[in-house]
Write a structure and sequence with these properties.
131 residues, mainly alpha
Length: 131
């Protein structure tokens, strides 16, 4: 059976661990990608920090609710998390930033690996560390 007993505190702890690991990996990738020619927009470091932690905490709450209320909660979480990860790749591929400015050179190289890092870290980490 996919269902297991976990507490909200356990899943939030798992989300925090996953988020901080993802944040560290994303900042490391940012340094590498900039050495490869990517240009980070102004305020990018803070955006990476916030975007690497808070969405994963929300995912941890979603995981908790799925485990608690769905028979196959873990499987549903993996499938929906994977789909969400794939849909998140749409934004970095756009030629215009949300503020209307043109996308910086190498932005996809900079951000797409970060989406994979955060998504995979969230899915695997929340499941692993919420036990």
């Amino acid at each position: 059976m996919d269902n297991q007993t976990v507490s909200l505190l356990q899943t939030l702890k798992a989300g925090a661990i996953s988020g901080f690991i993802g944040m560290g990996l994303n900042h490391g990738w940012s340094i590498v990608a900039q050495q490869l020619g990517s240009v980070a927009p102004e305020g990018f470091t803070m955006a990476v920090t916030i975007s690497s932690v808070f969405p994963i905490l929300i995912a941890a709450v979603v995981y908790y609710l799925m485990i608690k209320f769905l028979k196959k909660g873990k499987s549903v979480f993996v499938v929906l998390g994977s789909l969400f990860l794939l849909f998140s790749l749409y934004g970095p591929l756009q030629p215009i930033m949300p503020d209307g400015s043109p996308t910086p050179e190498g932005f996809a190289l900079l951000t797409i690996p970060m989406h994979f890092i955060s998504g995979i870290t969230a899915i695997a980490g929340i499941i692993r560390w919420s036990k």
